[in-house]
Amino acid sequence: MAQQADGMNYAPTASKVEPVVKPGEFVFAAAHLDHGHIYGQCNGLTEAGAELRYVYDPDPAKVKAFVEKFPQAKPVDCLERIFDDPEVKLVAAAAVPSERGPLGCRVMQAGRDYFTDKCPFTTLEQLEAARKVVAETGRKYMVYYSERVHVESAWYVDQLIQGGAIGDIVHMEIFGPHRLSKPTRPEWFFQKAKYGGILTDIASHQFDQFLHYTRSKGGDVLHARVDNMANADKPELEDLGEAVLKLDTGASCFSRVNWFTPDGMRGWGDGRSFITGTKGSIEIRKYFDIGRSNTGNLIFLADQQSDQMIEVDGKVGFPFFGQLILDFLNRTEHAMTQEHAFMASELSLKAQALADSRR
What we know:
- This protein has eleven helices and 14 strands.
- By secondary structure, it is α/β, with parallel strands linked by helices.
């Protein structure tokens, strides 16, 4: 597994590539390259057969670096140049978080679907505006919740859960520590109005997983806390966040995120999930096996008969992107429903608001 200094550079490539469309059948463009996840988004789409035709960003240096990775992308000087091409069906973007909602509305109003990095919004008002534009235009506003859709173990474990391996989920805990890499971060990263808060931002991954694994439609935030414990020089940074939910299925969920991955750790964060069911339990070690190896995508399953470790690294691939492309083409919702994409964000925004009210 390639090592990243921080999660901003997370952009895996599939060990097995399975295109779902023919060359030229699904054309997309990349725009606003503020977060490194745009590389993961484009890796996934192109591996599934999509044609990356254009790239736009107001910063020439970002465009230059992007084209070195994706030479097939033609730089353009504004979004309108992308919209001028009727074959472009989708715009993938990783803008500054506070700009993602308005950008998505603009893209959808131009008749294209939108695929944004998480977090998709920084305010509930942006979320409601996007819901309105989706209803008006019939376009899709999809979200790159990479900790599930671009991690083989997180994807495969859903098959185990839906197959009844551990019965009904009663409790989940997901931990998402990240390395801060403070000197390399852009200024917006430390401005709360732009990144939205730690629960809005990186915890949105976990809210996505809570909803998806339980097939829940929503829930209530029972507790939320954020703080700045060790970065007084960046007073708007929240380096610690936690939240407790009760979903409409009855399952309870605990989310913990922080920026305290030590430099001596082999990866950018020891992402773990613990899932307790009525008939068994699961632990996921997503990115590496701390103290033992660089190999991640390990699933530890205990049920009524036995306990076992399941290794899925390099065996599952990333089916989400092919499903997503077919959803865009066929107007279906197999990869992710629109309401799921929005509800994961809504819960994270509500958790952030509760935490903010208690500081």
